Amino acid sequence: MSREVDPESHLDLSQQREWIQQAVKDLSEQYRMPLDLVYYQGLKYREAADILGIPVGTVKSRLHSAILKLNEAFQQQFPSHSE
């Protein structure tokens, strides 16, 4: 069994990563900031809430909304990856 990834699959993954990075940058600041603080910087919800000056529940709801927006856009861009 070969564990090598074929070049086409590797390119596809690379394109997806680039797309995701750009899609995150394209989010409005209200969604991008909680996403950055929690998922990319590894802060806890409370820490992100303190930095942003918003309630923890708002951090959670904005993260949820950001993920939904990214998922919807991803499904439109890469329909072959839909389940």
What does this structure look like?
The protein is mainly alpha-helical. It has a domain at 15-27 and 47-78. 75% of the residues lie in helices and 0% in strands. The chain contains four helices and no strands. The protein has helices at 7-26, 29-40, 45-52, 56-77. α2 packs antiparallel against α3 (45-52) and α2 (29-40) packs across α4. The mean pLDDT is 87.
Total number of helices: 4
The low-pLDDT segments are none
Question: SSE string, helix = H, strand = E?
Answer: HHHH
The helix fraction, in percent, is: over 70%
Sheet with most strands: none
Average pLDDT, all residues: 87
Percent of residues in beta strands: under 5%
Identify the overall geometry.
elongated
First-last Cα distance: 26 Å
Record field, number of beta strands? 0
Structural class by secondary-structure content? mainly alpha
Rg measurement, Å? 16 Å
Write the SSE topology.
Elements: H1 7-26, H2 29-40, H3 45-52, H4 56-77
At a glance:
The protein is mostly helical and 83 residues long. Helices cover 75% and strands 0% of the residues.
Any key phrases for this structure?
mainly alpha; 83 residues; elongated; 4 helices; 0% strand
